[in-house]
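About this split. The held-out portion is used to measure sequence recovery: a designer receives only the C-alpha cells and must propose an amino acid at every position. Recovery is the fraction of positions where the proposal matches the reference. Here is one held-out target exactly as it appears in the evaluation file.
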C-alpha cells in the first residue's frame, strides 16, 4: 500500500478528511459566534426523490455550500447511514424540508389526514435527530396546492394550533424546530403572510415551532418584505432565498439590499437556503409551475446564488 510520510494511504486520507471536517466545524462555530448566516441549497433543485441523498450532500459540499437541505418525501426511504457518513465526511450542516402531500393535512375536516400528517412529521423529526438536523421547515399545516375557493375558517386554525402544538413539543423534545412557512395564495389559502405565521406561532406557544420565510412567496404576498422580516424578529429561524421568478438569488426584481439589511437588523444567524426549481425535475416543475428554463441550469442557480449570498455580507 502506498505510504505518505510513514502513513499508509487509507490512514493518510482519513487524517486529511478528519482535518477538513474539524476545520469546517470550527468555521461554523466561528460564524455563529460572529452572528453570520450559513448558506445552503435544497435538494429539490436536482431531485424529486429520497434516493441519492448522500450524493447531493457531496455535490453541495463540492459547490462550496455550508448546508444541505434534504426535501423529505418519505423518511423511511432516506438512506440514513449513507447520508450521515456523507455529512460527517464533508462537515456540512443539514436541514430538512417538508413535503405535504394530499393525504397529509393537519387542517382537514376528518381525523385520518391529520393523524397521517402528524405521523409523517414525527417520523421526519426522528430522521432529523439522527442526522443532526435542528430545523425542519415548510408548510407543515396543509398540502401544497390545497385550494378550496375560500379563506381559512376558525375551525381550521384551531386544528392547526392543536396539531402543531402536539408535534411541535415532540420536535422540541428531539432537538428539532418546526419552522412554518407562509406560501403564496396560489399554493395555499391557509397561511400567506408573515403576520399570520407570527400569530400562529405565538398561539401555539412552544419553542419547537417557529417561523421561516421565502423571498419568492414574500414577493407575491407581502406589502413590505423587509418589515415582515423585522416583525418576525427572533422567531425567524429559517430562510429560503430565490429570485422573484424562482431563479437565482440576487437577480430579478426583489430588493435584495433591503432584504439583507432587514436580516442583519434582526441578527439573523441561521441558514439561508437556495430553493429554486428547474423544468427538468418534472414532478416539482408541475407542482411549482416551472414551464421554461429560468436559468441556464440547476448548477448555475446554485453557483451564482451562493456567490451572491457570500458577497452580501449576511
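Reference sequence for scoring:
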Amino acid at each position: 500500500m502506498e505510504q505518505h510520510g510513514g502513513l499508509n494511504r487509507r490512514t493518510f486520507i482519513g487524517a486529511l478528511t478528519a482535518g477538513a471536517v474539524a476545520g469546517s466545524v470550527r468555521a461554523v462555530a466561528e460564524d455563529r459566534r460572529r452572528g453570520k448566516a450559513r448558506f445552503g441549497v435544497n435538494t429539490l433543485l436536482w431531485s424529486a426523490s429520497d434516493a441519492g441523498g448522500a450524493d447531493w450532500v457531496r455535490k453541495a459540499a463540492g459547490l462550496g455550500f455550508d448546508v444541505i437541505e434534504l426535501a423529505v418525501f418519505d423518511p423511511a426511504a432516506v438512506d440514513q447511514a449513507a447520508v450521515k457518513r456523507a455529512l460527517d465526511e464533508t462537515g456540512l450542516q443539514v436541514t430538512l424540508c417538508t413535503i405535504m402531500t394530499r393525504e397529509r393535512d393537519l387542517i382537514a375536516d376528518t381525523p385520518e389526514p391529520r393523524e397521517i400528517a402528524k405521523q409523517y412529521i414525527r417520523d421526519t423529526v426522528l430522521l432529523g435527530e439522527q442526522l443532526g438536523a435542528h430545523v425542519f421547515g415548510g408548510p407543515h399545516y396543509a398540502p401544497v396546492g390545497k385550494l378550496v375557493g375560500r379563506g381559512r375558517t376558525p375551525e381550521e386554525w384551531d386544528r392547526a394550533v392543536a396539531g402543531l402544538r402536539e408535534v411541535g413539543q415532540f420536535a422540541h423534545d428531539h432537538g428539532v424546530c418546526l419552522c412554518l412557512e407562509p406560501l403564496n395564495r396560489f399554493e395555499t389559502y391557509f397561511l400567506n403572510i408573515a403576520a399570520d405565521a407570527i400569530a400562529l406561532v405565538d398561539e401555539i406557544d412552544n419553542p419547537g415551532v417557529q417561523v421561516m420565510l421565502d423571498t419568492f412567496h414574500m414577493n407575491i404576498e407581502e406589502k413590505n418584505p423587509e418589515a415582515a422580516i423585522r416583525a418576525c424578529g427572533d422567531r425567524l429561524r429559517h430562510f429560503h432565498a430565490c429570485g422573484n421568478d424562482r431563479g437565482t438569488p440576487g437577480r430579478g426584481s426583489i430588493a435584495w439590499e433591503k432584504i439583507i439589511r432587514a436580516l442583519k437588523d434582526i441578527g439573523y444567524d441561521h441558514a439561508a437556503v437556495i430553493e429554486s426549481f428547474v423544468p427538468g425535475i418534472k414532478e416539482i416543475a408541475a407542482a411549482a409551475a416551472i414551464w421554461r428554463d429560468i436559468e441556464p441550469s440547476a448548477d448555475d442557480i446554485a453557483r451564482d446564488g451562493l456567490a451572491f449570498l457570500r458577497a452580501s455580507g449576511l
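Annotator remark: The longest helix spans residues 9-33.
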